[in-house]
Amino acid sequence: MIRVLVVDDSPGDRQWLAGLLARSSDYEVITAANGEEAIRLVAEYSPHVIVTDMLMPGMNGLELVAALRQAFPGLPVILVTAHGSEDLALEALRRGASSYVAKSWAARRLLPTVHQVAEAAVQRAKISRLNQYLQHCGFSFSLASDCQLLKPILNFVHGLLECLELDSGEITRINIALQEALSNAVFHGNLELSSALREEDEAQYFALAERRRKEPPYCNRRVYFRGELSRQKLEFVIRDEGPGFDPSVLPNPHDPESLECPCGRGLLLIYSFMDEVSFNERGNEIRLVKRLSEKGTPEQPVVGPRDAPEETPLR
């Protein structure tokens, strides 16, 4: 069973968030009223995932992320954002938080987000470390447009990143960025599905995806995923065979208001977790780069996500 710690100074919101998680029998939920209590409960109960509000008296969400990363490296933290906390949330994502959920969308998004982050963390713990002397490796896949392939391919990347001795929390963040980019290539690229349809009717969205996966021309399209990994730099390239897109029509991922926009969530996470993000002219290929220090830990980006070029957003 996955143990989740919910941190919120509001008793009502704390009970509401815990209740959303309690809908699933997979989770054991404990709660804390502030950051100081959260740190004490982490030491006592060893939760697998933290879900925290951003705006709290005393230690806010950003300060809690920093304290947890210092005392419990690798423990994933999910932010719950509300209007007025967007700047803090963006900074927390840059400093080590694993994901976020806008409070206005928590009823629909909290359980799937906790599942995504918890699964990534559990898989990381289960995969054994390979050769500690590994200096460089590369891979190249030609994948069918099948979302069932995403989990095994991400597990494969997990193992490679562990061999390079990356910080465990950083592995989770990189895998979440890759999952967002690969899902984008499958659903929006090859299957040509819109984010608007998913927000209107999620069941219809996935039903249409399943139909198109078996129909030409969609069924003939591939997702090409390659990576070059060393102890200095990680580089991933993902290309689909869809028609491409015009990046200029999408919302700015560096704008704090993007946290409240469900269609821009994947893009915001990718920009927050990677050092470089770029696209080809057609708009059907994305290149992601994470720079590392000599020991395999992330470097501080020279140009952060806030300052990255605005002409290269993802669908």
TrEMBL record:
Domain Response regulatory: 3-118
Keywords for the protein's UniProt record, in alphabetical order: Kinase, Phosphoprotein, Transferase
A Pfam family annotated for this UniProt entry: HATPase_c_2
MF-aspect GO terms: kinase activity
Region annotation (Disordered) ranges: 293-315
SMART domains linked: REC
BP GO annotations: phosphorelay signal transduction system
The protein's name: Sensory histidine kinase YfhA
